[in-house]
Known about the structure:
Layout (H helix, E strand, L loop, with lengths): L3 H10 L4 H13 L5 H20 L3 H24 L18 H23 L4 H22 L7
Helix pairs in contact: 1-3, 1-4, 4-5
Amino acid sequence: MRLVLPLLLLLGLVGCSSSKESTAQNTQTDTTTTTPQQAQRQQAVEAFQEIRQRLALTDVQSERVRSILAEQAEQTQAIREKYGFTGRRGQGGGRGQRPDRSQMQAMRADLDTLRTQTDAKLATVLSAEQMETWKAIQAERQQQRGQRGGRRGGRG
Length: 156
């Protein structure tokens, strides 16, 4: 979840049409150094392209899905800010800015509700087969996060 949310947020900031992607790729190629924001933007574009390919989205579906995911990203950021979660690893957020346990539980509940709403919106755009693939993609990413994230909490 921690990695998908920033990627989705970036999808809202990045136009993912093929012409914009090629422009972004050309810009990346021309520069010798890239900022963390540029790297994240490129990851977001690549993540969306993977989704687009795996779901075999039409151009119309692609734009609608991108719009839905961008909206989700904006709402996710608003929820995080509502609960005071502004820290990001490696970006100056750090510890001490995390909400307490009860706030984290409330935030997770809000995020789960948002995820359910997003899936309902996606279901109006995607076929039943595409929705199954979408859920499989989400499950794969959840599993990858679990493997990378190590244990959560339990300190002390």
